[in-house]
Amino acid sequence: MMTPVLRTVVARPVQVRAGRVILEGDLALPDEAVGIVVFAHGSGSSRHSPRNRAVARELQEAGLATLLLDLLTTTEEAIDAQTGYFRFDIALLAKRLVETTRWLKLQPATRNLHVGYFGASTGGGAALMAAAEGPEAIGAVVSRGGRPDLAGSALRLVRAPTLLIVGGRDQPVIELNQQALAALRCEKELVIVPGATHLFEEPGTLEEVARLASEWFVRHLPIAAAAPAPAADA
Fold first, then answer.
1. Which of 110, 104, 95, 120 is nearest to 39 (CA)?
2. pLDDT in tens, 73-86
3. Containing H/E element for 162?
4. Could you report the per-residue pLDDT of 160-219, keeping only the tens digit for each?
5. Residue (of 210, 169, 230, 222) closest to 57 by Cα position
6. Handedness of CA 106, 28, 100, 38 (dihedral sign)
7. Strands (E), 46-110
8. Which of 90, 89, 211 is closest to 148 using CA atoms?
């Protein structure tokens, strides 16, 4: 049995400028990080989501930096809580993920780390749309109980290896993920976690999500970072 690696993780709050707004986030950097994963939270959720924070801790133990980010401002969250308007504005959420990726590439602590996206619920669609907009910048995508179908025609443009994770008792979302899987043209996989509902609240199911996500990112992000840049057109 392999001995777990004991890592020092430095965590701090950050503010990310995305266009005309400032987004609040929590950045965690383990020593000798092999990549960084940006979390795109789902409808009605935030960087304080206990489920996503649990997954983030698993990723950090595997040597991955994490950025748990609120893609909406406080004002937008208040409006969304009443109307649900912003949570389905996938183009806006994707744009902010792209801008966050650019921000990471300007920070001394993260500029050399290849980026992955972890999306939950509607955040899954935003993560895939953002990956389609900047295919050379994103090394891997994982969606948990996500709505990848909301990325629409952008799905066929995604180049990052993509893992879709769905609960076995979340039948409508399983069907939507199967449709999205068929549209993707990248390395892809759909994993159905037996006995899990949409929020993966059943014992052991969220731990399985964290294990699957950790293995996917550790497998793909270092490879993406090592790949040569594409040659410029003649």
1. 120
2. 888 888 878 887 78
3. strand 162-167
4. 999 999 999 999 999 999 999 999 999 999 999 999 999 899 999 999 999 999 999 999
5. 210
6. positive
7. 65-69
8. 90
**Cα dihedral sign for 201, 76, 35, 159?**
positive
Structure tokens at 164: 């879709």
Tokens read off for 205: 């199911």
Would you say 26 and 11 are in contact if contact means Cβ atoms under 8 Å apart?
yes
**Can you give the C-alpha Rg of the chain in angstroms?**
17
Question: What's the pTM?
Answer: 0.90
Name the DSSP letter for residue 71.
S
What distance in Å separates the CA atoms of residue 155 and residue 205, rounded to the nearest whole number? 27
Which element (helix H / strand E) includes 51?
Answer: helix 50-61
d(CA 186, CA 12): 34
- Going along the chain from its start, the domains and CATH numbers come out as 9-226 (3.40.50.1820)
List beta partners, residue 141. 117, 162
- Residue 25's beta-bridge partner residues? 14, 69
Q: Specify the pairing of strand 9-18 against strand 21-30.
A: antiparallel
